[in-house]
Write a structure and sequence with these properties.
The structure holds two protein chains of two kinds. Chain A is mainly alpha-helical. Chain A is built from five helices and one strand. In chain A, 66% of the residues lie in helices and 2% in strands. In chain A, α1 packs across α5 and α4 runs antiparallel to α5. In chain B, α1 runs antiparallel to α2, α1 runs antiparallel to α4 and α3 runs antiparallel to α4. Classes of the chains: A mainly alpha, B mainly alpha.
């Protein structure tokens, strides 16, 4: 596996873990503890685990003296970024337009909705970028080295 | 001026026109009793007029032999995309934080602001993209 694959795999695992733990926490707080839904949403604090993705370039450092990125890697990176931002923008437009149609143009929405949109978008970008990268290289080790 | 530069100028002019247009509508939207139908109509026609002229200008090549883009153009575009992707996050975080300060943590905003934020961010990002391209070429009309 090369460096880009390792980073993508690490990011994917971290994001998936954050999402699964968040859903479990919300479920436990609501169904087991019996908190009201608004308070049970506090379980989404586990999304903070996604911050670990920032460590991936440090965990998988470039090896000095070795070429770790060629034209093919660049093309894959470009495809992954394009895919991630296209999906993010589509969902971002949907997140803006759905409340507009549901509540009507005169409706109001809590200011807390905005960070949900933005941080949800960040998670989607990391998730899609990692999936596309792994899909392009192949999910398993095919003998590629950094 | 090559095709990439012309494209960047096109985007720059159009985004400035649309941003000005949006800003006028936005400032008048919340003012009671103000109707600006005539102004909107004139501005819409002006936008269409400029877009048509710029599309024609965009099609004109420096010479018949001019290529659409080379490696240098691709590198410039790549850097501009990187700058605009970074600016997406800065703008979105700003669009999230500003309403919190304006209406408070428990406040609410009109739902019509969401598409405005959406479209506004898109236009500003396009503006940054075109400025990044033009800045790398040096703004000028020298044969590049």
């Amino acid at each position: 596996m090369n460096r880009a694959q390792k980073i993508a795999r690490f990011n994917l695992i971290v994001v998936m873990m954050a999402l699964i733990l968040s859903v479990i926490a919300v479920g436990v707080l609501y169904f087991v503890v019996g908190l009201p839904m608004q308070r049970a949403f506090g379980g989404f604090a586990f999304i903070a685990i996604c911050g670990l993705t920032g460590l991936s370039p440090l965990l998988y450092k470039k090896e000095p003296g070795k070429v770790s990125f060629d034209e093919r890697d660049l093309l894959i990176h470009k495809k992954a970024s394009l895919g991630a931002y296209s999906i993010f923008w589509f969902l971002f437009v949907l997140a803006a337009m759905i409340p507009f149609f549901v509540l009507g143009p005169k409706g109001t929405i809590s200011v807390k909705y905005l960070p949900t949109m933005v941080f949800g978008g960040m998670v989607i970008v990391i998730l899609v970028q990692s999936i596309v990268t792994l899909e392009e290289y192949g999910w398993r080790n095919k003998g590629e080295i950094s | 001026m090559n095709k990439t530069q012309k494209g960047a100028w096109f985007t720059l002019v159009i985004t400035i026109l649309f941003l000005a247009f949006g800003l006028i509508i936005f400032t008048r939207m919340f003012a009671p009793g103000v109707t600006s139908t005539k102004l909107i109509r004139i501005w819409s026609f002006a936008n269409l007029f400029f877009m048509t002229i710029l599309v024609v200008w965009l099609r004109i090549k420096q010479s018949r032999a001019e290529v659409d883009s080379d490696e240098r153009d691709e590198l410039i575009k790549k850097r501009a995309v990187l700058v605009s992707f970074t600016s997406v996050w800065i703008l979105l975080i700003a669009a999230t934080i500003i309403p919190w300060f304006v209406v408070g943590q428990e406040g609410s905003i009109p739902v019509c602001l969401l598409p405005i934020i959406n479209f506004g961010v898109f236009l500003i990002v396009m503006l940054i993209y075109s400025v990044a391209i033009l800045a790398q070429y040096g703004w000028g009309g020298e044969k590049s």
